[in-house]
Structure to design on (276 residues):
């Protein structure tokens, strides 16, 4: 009987809202006033998701998307500073910033000059660590319909997350639909409710911390972060088209080393070029 917006406020779930400014100008989705109200109550942040959410024809156009979307958000929310950029999946080529080496190209440089941090460095191929989360093994899941999440699988994943020290875990979704809907890039309402209920429960048990992405980047963590007491903890390879249970996944040159980490614990290793 409540919208996802209302329920998230009630449960105090901080959300990083990715805004496509051209769609916002067309009054598509939530208003800026609703977003300001949400983060004022529940926390989180208003982040840029570009102006058009489309592939551009030139480097200059990509740079304009980065810079102008931030400026437009700040014009519509006076006094607010937009600190985070969420990279559109439609971006291609050198604009798809999934390698450390791409930080040196004009688009990567513009991104670093404009925002405090960015999900551009946490694409679906990145599983162990990255540049803009200085601490922690990081992973991300999407709970939209096409990822086939269920209430049971969402709860199972979050139980593993809560039992895993040193994990920065990112959950993403797009729109919200009624329970039983089959629209891609929209999360089912019952799955979103279950997620928020579980997050609220685990936070109440002091097993997890909830925060928006900029807050996670600037958070202070203990020196023992990433210490894995059990060297035999389970790793999994992500399966395309399935909702996997373990948040610990590795890819390409990334690996987990069994010792020589903090207090001789396991640790995540990134290859020299940073590509995962």
């Amino acid at each position: 009987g409540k919208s996802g917006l209302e329920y998230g406020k009630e449960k105090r779930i901080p959300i990083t809202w990715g805004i496509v400014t051209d769609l916002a100008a067309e009054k598509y989705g939530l208003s800026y006033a609703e977003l300001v109200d949400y983060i004022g109550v529940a926390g989180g942040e208003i982040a840029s998701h570009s102006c058009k959410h489309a592939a551009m024809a030139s480097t200059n156009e990509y740079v304009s998307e980065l810079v102008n979307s931030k400026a437009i958000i700040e014009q519509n929310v006076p006094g607010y500073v937009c600190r985070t950029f969420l990279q559109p999946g439609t971006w291609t080529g050198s604009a798809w910033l999934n390698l450390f080496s791409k930080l040196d190209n004009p688009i990567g440089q513009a991104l670093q000059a404009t925002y405090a941090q960015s999900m551009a460095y946490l694409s679906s191929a990145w599983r162990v660590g990255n540049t803009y989360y200085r601490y922690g093994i990081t992973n991300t899941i999407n709970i939209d319909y096409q990822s086939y999440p269920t209430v049971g699988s969402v709860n199972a994943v979050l139980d593993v997350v809560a039992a895993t020290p040193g994990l920065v875990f990112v959950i993403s979704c797009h729109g919200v639909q009624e329970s039983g809907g089959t629209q891609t890039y929209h999360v089912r309402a019952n799955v979103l409710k279950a997620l928020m209920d579980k997050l609220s429960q685990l936070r109440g048990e002091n097993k997890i911390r909830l925060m928006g992405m900029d807050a996670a980047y600037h958070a202070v963590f203990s020196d023992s972060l990433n210490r894995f007491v059990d060297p035999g903890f389970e790793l999994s390879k992500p399966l395309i088209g399935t909702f996997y249970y373990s948040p610990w996944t590795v890819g390409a040159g990334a690996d987990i080393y069994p010792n020589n980490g903090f207090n001789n614990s396991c640790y995540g290793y990134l290859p020299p070029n940073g590509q995962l």
